Write a sequence for this structure.
């Protein structure tokens, strides 16, 4: 199991790497294609690194949030905040050019249903978690409620990952009450990107999750092998401060003690057990929502991931306003 005793030096190195590494440029809508994704691709980490490279204050905020999170994890805080459960209103912003992109209410509701199952361990494949990880599989205990659906016709064929869909001035839809409601934008992203999320600490003007309309929910335009609503589960995990399980580096860290070290992202539906070549050669938790496997192959959060998510809703946390 990976060592995750928090060290500020590690986080500082990660943040510094945003400027020292070769710059990651997210694609604009002009050079995006709209091909069906062959492999899962989430742009959350790339978008975060680009934002931090441009805004040193954001890099500091992200570091402060990590310090806060680790402190809360060591306090054994009370995890249930509102009437026994955290309830998050969801605003779905639909941007469409074609009739297919103007997804149905039923497809939207199917996604809300998946989020509620996955975050409350009532998904039908929850019991598929191998015995090796059965003692750390978690019921996060967060409920999602569809608050409203906002629709807007557009002439854009794809939106890219520069947050244009979140800005009315750029033809998109500005977020509704982003400090108390989770805004979810549904549009064609392009470039094979399934979705991306803004991590805690970013601007409220762009806060939320973006999902391509071909990978939302379980009906309508939902496209195999990403047709079980798990793209949103993955991205909402980022929105709640979870990192990719491989730490976006070879044998990197996701700051969770109970998730084994992964060499890198996994794709498709890996045969269990899948061994890592990282230190100790652990069995990888490929069925974790924060890997890159197909929807049918991911079906669990871990206990430490649960604690990490719930920490941000505590007093002083970056999403405390959602728990009021």
């Amino acid at each position: 199991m990976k060592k995750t005793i928090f060290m500020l030096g590690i986080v500082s190195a990660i943040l510094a790497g945003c400027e020292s590494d070769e710059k990651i440029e997210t694609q604009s809508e002009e050079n995006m294609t709209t091909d069906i994704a062959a492999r899962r691709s989430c742009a959350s980490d790339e978008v975060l690194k680009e934002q931090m490279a441009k805004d040193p204050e954001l890099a500091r905020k992200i570091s402060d949030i990590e310090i806060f999170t680790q402190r809360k994890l060591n306090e054994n805080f009370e995890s249930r905040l509102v009437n026994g459960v955290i309830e998050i209103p969801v605003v779905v912003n639909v941007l469409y050019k074609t009739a297919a992109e103007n997804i149905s209410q039923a497809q939207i509701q199917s996604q809300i249903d998946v989020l509620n199952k996955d975050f409350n361990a009532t998904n039908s494949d929850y019991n598929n978690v191998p015995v090796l990880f059965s003692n750390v599989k978690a019921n996060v205990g967060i409920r999602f409620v569809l608050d409203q659906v906002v629709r807007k016709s557009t002439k854009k064929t794809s939106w890219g990952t520069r947050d244009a869909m979140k800005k009315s001035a750029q033809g998109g839809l500005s977020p509704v009450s982003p400090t108390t409601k989770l805004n979810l934008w549904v549009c064609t992203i392009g470039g094979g990107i399934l979705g991306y999320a803004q991590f805690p600490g970013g601007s409220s003007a762009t806060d939320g999750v973006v999902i391509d309309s071909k990978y939302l929910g379980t009906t309508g335009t939902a496209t195999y092998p990403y047709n079980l609503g798990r793209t949103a589960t993955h991205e909402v995990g980022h929105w709640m401060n979870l990192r990719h399980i491989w730490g976006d580096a070879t044998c990197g860290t996701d700051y969770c003690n109970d998730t084994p070290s992964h060499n890198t992202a996994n794709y498709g539906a890996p045969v269990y057990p899948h061994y890592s070549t990282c230190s100790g050669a652990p069995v990888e938790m490929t069925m974790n929502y924060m890997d890159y496997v197909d929807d049918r192959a991911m079906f669990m959060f871990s206990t430490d991931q649960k604690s990490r998510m719930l920490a941000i809703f505590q007093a002083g946390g970056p999403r405390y306003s959602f728990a009021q």
Summary: Confidence is low (pLDDT under 50) at residues 3-34. The CA atoms of residues 226 and 295 lie 5 Å apart.
